[in-house]
Specification:
Number of strands: 2
Strand content: under 5%
Number of domains: 1
Radius of gyration: 18 Å
Low-confidence stretches: 194-211, 279-287
Strand order of the largest sheet: 1-2
Shape: globular
Helix content: 55-70%
Distance between the termini: 36 Å
Largest sheet: 2 strands, antiparallel
Length: 287
């Protein structure tokens, strides 16, 4: 049976959550989950300047992926994203062949973004999604995936099946690839390759880093599935869990006072700022 799908109209759940700046909060964790996939980690290491500029891939991909949901020409943009991956293939450090458009590999990259939307809704939004809303949102992510024009064979038929398959990949298939090891090292110890503040110069950025690094680390590791933290010995204890839950609660409560227009403006500014650091000609804003 093919998985169900739902239209991505202006009132769809997926568009509502994707247009909220909180949808980006689990993004670093989603990026780690991608890099831990053997094929994706190998492709990133071989076909990008990841080890020289670890955040360049995020700069390139996040605005483009979100535009496949939010832009009026989202379906066209999705096919353009697919076509960028046609030449990405080779062999990893163990000699295993890979290609970015292998159905299970391409699905996993998208699955981490689907997971990111659900994780943001679970942790950072005050309202809990009902069972029928979970299924509706999942069906909309299926429509989102269909925009790429690739095989739908790996797509689970419902949200419960998606959760089961996602957990299986995390528990059995992910590896500490060289790219993932580098990203984890940056998450643990920080890096000078990421500019946190778009204005103010190096001093302001260093000050912002001192303030933001611990919360960013908490959000990155706290959003990761527990099985991933356990498998790869990512430091996480009761104090970390307590601090992360307090941070998520403060976020949920604080956003009650943020006007929706300001929220959407913040998302657009964030995507434009990230997109301004991408390769020339690769980014066009959604609005």
């Amino acid at each position: 049976m093919p998985p169900p799908s739902r239209p991505l109209g202006p009132d769809s759940l997926l568009r509502r959550y994707a247009a909220d700046v909180r949808s980006l909060l689990p993004g670093a964790a989603a990026g780690l989950l991608q890099l831990m996939h053997p094929a994706i980690g190998a492709g990133v290491g071989e076909h990008s300047a990841f080890f020289d500029a670890p955040f360049d891939r995020i700069h390139r991909s996040v605005p483009q992926i979100w535009a496949t949901i939010l832009a009026p020409d989202g379906a066209d943009r999705a096919r353009a994203v697919r076509d960028l991956h046609r030449s990405i293939g080779g062999a990893d450090e163990l000699g295993r062949r890979y290609h970015a458009l292998t159905p299970e590999t391409f699905w996993w990259a998208h699955a981490t973004f689907t997971w990111e939307i659900f994780k943001a809704a679970e942790l950072f939004h005050p309202a809990t999604l009902r069972a029928e809303e979970l299924e509706a949102l999942y069906a909309e992510t299926v429509t989102w995936y269909s925009r790429y024009g690739v095989s739908m064979r790996p797509v689970p038929p419902d949200y419960a099946a998606f959760q089961s398959k996602f957990w299986h990949v995390c528990a059995e298939e992910l590896e500490l690839t060289p790219a993932a090891a580098r990203a984890l090292d940056i998450a643990r110890h920080g890096s000078d390759t990421l500019t946190l503040l778009p204005v103010g110069g190096p001093r302001a950025d260093r000050a912002g880093r001192l303030v933001a690094e611990r919360p960013l680390r908490l959000v990155t590791f706290g959003c990761l599935p527990p099985i991933v933290r356990l498998r790869f010995a990512i430091p996480w204890g009761p104090l970390d869990e307590t601090a992360f839950r307090a941070l998520a609660l403060a976020n949920r409560q604080g956003y009650r006072m943020v006007p929706s227009g300001l929220n959407r403006w913040a998302l657009q500014r964030m995507l434009r700022y990230i997109g301004a650091h991408t390769r020339e000609g690769r980014y066009r804003p959604a609005a």
